[in-house]
Amino acid sequence: MRTNWPVYVKIALAWLLATGMLGCLSTPHTPPASPESSQTEPVQEAWQQWWEQGLEHGRAGRPDQAIAAMTRVVEVNPGFWPVYWGRGNALAEMGRLEAAVADFSEAIELGSNTIDPYLCRAAAYRGLEQPDKALLDLTTAIDRGAPAPVYVERARVHIELDQYEDAIGDCSRAIDHNPGLAEAYFTRGRALRMSEQWAKAIEDFDKTETLDPNNTWLYQNRARCYLVLEQLDEAIRDANEVIAVWPDSADPYNIRGDAHNAAGRYEAALKDHDTAIRLAPEKTWFLLNRAAAYTNQKRYDLALADCDRAIALDSAYGAAWVDRGEIRGRMGAHHEGIEDIQRGLQLEPENPAFWRSLGDAYAATGDYEKAADSHRQAIQYGDRTGEAHASLGHCLDMMGRRDEALDRLSEAIDLRSDVPYPWTMRGTVYVQLGEHEAAIWDSSKAIELDPSYFAAYHVRSVALHNTGRFEEAIADCTRMIELDPNSATGYAKRGGAYYQMKQYDRVLSDCTEAIRIDPNVALPYLHRGIAHGSMGAPLESIEDFTRAIQLCSESRGGPAQQATDRTTLADALNSRGYSYSQLEKYEQAMTDYDRAIELNPHLVIAYINRANACLAQQKYAQAVADFSEVLRQDPNKVGMYPARARANLQLGHFAEVLADLERYRDAGGRVDPKKLERLRKLIARSSGKN
Question: 3-class SS at 679?
């Protein structure tokens, strides 16, 4: 049965026909007899006729008859090299590539002085998936003076071998020889795309479009570049061009679906992915792309089902296992997710993206040591995105190794300074180190790169808040709300800034909105409770603080979230204790202060509040102890000296009272000198001195 001529052979022969170099097959002629033959005139005339018949059959698309005629020529005149070349082409058209290679080799051995047999043998080698041998033949043809299109052919082989820089070099040489060769720009664009030089690839595809706007492949390749660069409208435009020409091709629907997904248009994405899967149900990665759209909609059961289908289609497809592992992690099944990702790594142990996924999965469980090790593996296996460095920096930050975290995040920025994530992460570390100006600079850089990057506004708002620039912090929180109207964080953070500006009505408004959006987050209850208390509504504040305490006590997050909730819990207990104190419910207040201090021994305000509650209950010794702890932790709290003096006065510790008042005076506080003199006399009398 006749088979289609392999595309590689068609390409080679199309070039030969276009250049007129396929002389033996394009123009019948009578070749000379082999010099070794001593043929009679009738015999020579016969094989010349067979040769011409073979050429005619070849031109008419009858390769089987061409082979038969040329075989008869070989039997009579075995030293005539063009017949081996001609028969090789006919064999290639029949799909008999090994036999074709043998004939092309014979033509070469018999002394062909043209590049044609090398080109045809290279095409056959490509059909046999032997690109290394094809490369040698194309190189020989080039060394013998082959024109520009042959450089393009060799570039295609380099691409097959993942030798992208070599492919780029060959196409550049072809362009130097022939600046109008569209295929050279297109092929170089492919090599640039596959070597992740997206912007340069787009330039070459643009040039291809100018020279050959009917090349549909250019639109599909350029769409992929636009997709990576998040130029989503452009990606969709090019995908539409492909769909208009090839409405039954699955790939452009898949690309357009990915673009819709990245733009947050999930229903449109699902519609395109459904079409792609219907047209090509055997392509497992289409299922994974649809799973990504389901994941963004938090429809994890459907996303998981698509991953299961992909694994059923190809259990050796590592990405399917890794994607399923990531989805399981989002569903809270972290350990099962880690097992899936590890299965993917067994299949592709040197895939840096898989190692990054494993690192993220370990981080979600709070095992930052294993997470850090996984990200180091990603770096070892050639992660060039900067993501592994950035994630490693995050892990080091969570382990308290912030100087190392800064180094890693700086490396990530060096690798990809055009990506906002590492700038934002480094800003987060600077916030924790108290270097707020550096945090503002880094998060501002991230915003410059992507004005819609939510996390950068969050980090900058915190840094601005901590430096007292509350109006600017409010502006960033407002931008967060504009980017995500359902951002409880944006409302809660803005409410906190309004509290610092004593705009309590706005605190109540923002925190109430945050609670409406997500009633299961503690922070807005805490802020709203403080506002209620400041507005003289202690009962309402106690209700809010109690809800915040309940939510923090029920925390189910990882260690990082639990640490945050522990801090919020201590703040809420202290604040509720203060509200109880305002209502003179000192027993409840003392219980809350004790728990707050137990949770956060460095919460100075809790010691102050407990000390004041002790004064109100005439528990002067404990009040002294708490005021002393405040001064030990923060010597700048000079207002504690007269407070401690009052407690010591009730205990009759006059020397301590005098010492505290003198310290207060020396720190710039106003103390009546007569009071100090009376204390000195009192101390002198009590010690028996005149």
Answer: helix
Q: What share of the chain has pLDDT > 70, as a percent? A: 92
Backbone angles phi, psi at 484, to 5 degrees: -140, 90
User: What region does 557 belong to: left with phi over 0, alpha with psi -120 to 50, or beta?
Assistant: beta
Phi then psi dihedrals of residue 322, to 5 deg: -65, -45
Distance CA 283, CA 114 (A): 43
Q: Which residues contact 36 (CB under 8 A, 6 or more apart)?
A: 79
Q: What is the model's pTM? A: 0.69
Between 44 and 679, the higher pLDDT residue: 679
Question: Closest by alpha carbon to 529, among 548, 544, 519?
Answer: 544
User: How many CB atoms within 10 Å of residue 112?
Assistant: 17
Are 611 and 630 contacting, i.e. CB atoms less than 8 angstroms apart? yes
Four-residue CA torsion sign, 69, 72, 76, 79 = positive
Q: What is the mean pLDDT of the chain?
A: 89
Residue-wise over 50-78: b if at least 16 C-beta within 10 A, else e?
bbbbbbebbeeebbebbbbbbebbbebbe
In this structure, are residues 225 and 198 in contact, taking their beta carbons and an 8 Å threshold?
Answer: yes
With a cut of 80, say whether residue 525 has pLDDT above it: yes
Summarize the confidence of residues 247-252 as an average pLDDT. 96
CA distance 354 to 345: 6
Q: What is the pLDDT of residue 449?
A: 94
> What letters, b where the CB count within 10 A reaches 16 and e where it falls short, cover 302-317?
ebbebbebbbeeeeeb
Q: How many CB atoms lie within 10 A of CB 602?
A: 10
User: How many helices (H) and strands (E) would you count in the chain?
Assistant: 39, 0
Whether residue 446 has pLDDT greater than 80: yes
The pLDDT, as a whole number, for residue 199 is: 95
The answer to whether residue 302 scores a pLDDT higher than 70 is yes
